[in-house]
Automatic annotation (TrEMBL):
Source organism per UniProt: Thermobifida halotolerans
CDD domains attached to this UniProt entry: cupin_DUF861
UniProt superkingdom: Bacteria
Protein name: Nuclear transport factor 2 family protein
Domain SnoaL-like residue range list: 12-109
Length: 243
């Protein structure tokens, strides 16, 4: 736990102070960095290999006149994820969600998704640091649970699905719909999740992968390993008992 807190504090401090050298010190020499933004779709992301190449890109980013704020940061085992808010002098904002794969406390892969925030919020939110041990709400159901944190007006949840869990069997009775009607933007911390869309197409998302699931789907645990994932987009009503 102490190592996780140190990682969280060091990276957050380095980002907010725009200390590129301190950020790079956390990267492995052979690390990979992937960025998806308005000009780089998932099919053609910016892909960099090696700390030197990553450093050149980060120096370009942090040389721009903007304020960086780390709003949410979660560490679990060899994985971490955080949300960063970047504000330009004209108050336009960019939100960045980053997922980190770690080895011995060093970043071996970073995947980031960048999007412009058009909410127009003028007052910067305060920095918050929390753990799921202090979740605002925990929703339990057969073979699973969802732990919810509410931070700066945003929700982030951690879902735990045990072997044998299936949405259509264990959450459908709560939801009252034939398929899950929520969008999910997830990072898989462990296990493999199977998904079937309304059109019959199927795919799997495994540990270390980021996935966005459109409404209208079923999902289940593949194999005998518990699935643990972080979700930034699920509505606060997911798996909520309506009684």
């Amino acid at each position: 736990m102490e190592a996780a807190v140190t990682l969280q504090e060091e990276i957050s401090r380095a980002i907010e102070s725009r200390d590129v050298d301190a950020i790079l010190a956390r990267f492995d020499n052979d690390a990979d960095y992937v960025l998806i933004d308005q000009t780089r779709p998932p099919s053609e992301p910016l892909a960099l290999h090696g700390r030197d190449a990553i450093g050149r890109s980060l120096r370009d980013i942090f040389a721009q006149d903007m304020r960086h704020e780390v709003q949410q940061f979660v560490v679990q085992g060899d994985h971490a994820a955080y949300v960063e808010r970047c504000t330009y002098p004209d108050d336009s904002k960019v939100m960045v969600m980053s997922m980190l794969d770690l080895r011995s406390g060093r970043i071996v892969r970073q995947s980031s998704v960048q999007a412009w925030d058009e909410s127009g919020t003028a007052t910067p939110p305060r920095t918050q640091k929390r753990t799921f041990a202090d979740a605002d709400e925990v929703r339990t159901f057969e073979k699973g649970r969802v732990e919810l944190l509410r931070m700066n007006g945003n929700d982030v949840s951690r879902a735990v699905f045990e072997p044998g869990w299936r949405w259509s069997q264990h959450v459908k009775p709560i939801a009252g719909t034939d398929l899950c009607t929520y969008t999910h933007f997830c990072y898989i911390l462990s296990g493999t999740l199977g998904i079937r869309m309304a059109d019959g197409s199927e795919f799997e998302a495994a540990q270390g992968e980021t996935i966005r699931i459109a409404p209208g789907h079923d999902a289940w645990v593949v194999g005998e390993q518990t699935v643990v994932l972080l979700d930034w987009e699920t509505s606060g009503d997911y798996a909520k008992d309506r009684d």
